[in-house]
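User: tokens in, sequence out, please.
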């Protein structure tokens, strides 16, 4: 017999300072994806999540993550992304492009906006033109990319791994 004891719902790791990461997502096809992304953002200590369009959060899926982030719903992301970029936030897209960086080799700026693509259409061309960089997550099988919520969780985790204290 081993000495492991199952501990359910340990207290979150404390951050030394608030994260300087903002998460931005377009109107998504699936409210399940939105709820999963909000939950992951809350688990990672992300302070602000920007969403556009009709956003409906299912608290059973988000596990009430929307109560732990500043969820801002906008009609369009483009104007707010322009303002954030002018305020000194690099815009990093999670998207497969001709110049994408492999997430395993990419060093996130500590202060940045992570821009997520739409499940089917990715990041629109007008937003792509604003981005400072794009990152992609390698796929070793089929299909060609991860689900939007899954990819967002992976990218958030990598950011947190690089900046564990905030």
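Assistant: Sequence out:
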């Amino acid at each position: 017999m081993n000495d492991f004891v199952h501990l359910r719902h340990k207290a979150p790791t404390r951050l030394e300072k608030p994260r300087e990461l903002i998460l931005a997502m377009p109107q998504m096809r699936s409210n399940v994806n939105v709820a999963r992304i909000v939950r992951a953002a809350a688990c990672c200590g992300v302070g602000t999540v920007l969403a556009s369009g009709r956003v409906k959060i299912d608290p059973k899926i988000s596990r009430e993550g929307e109560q732990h982030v500043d969820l801002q719903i906008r009609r369009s992301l483009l104007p707010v992304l322009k303002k954030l970029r002018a305020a000194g936030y690099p815009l990093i897209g999670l998207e497969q492009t001709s110049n994408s960086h492999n997430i395993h080799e990419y060093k996130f700026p500590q202060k940045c906006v992570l821009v997520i693509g739409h499940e089917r259409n990715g990041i629109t061309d007008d937003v792509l033109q604003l981005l400072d960089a794009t990152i992609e997550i390698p796929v070793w099988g089929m299909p060609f990319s991860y689900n939007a919520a899954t990819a967002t969780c992976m990218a958030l985790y990598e950011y947190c791994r690089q900046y564990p204290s905030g």
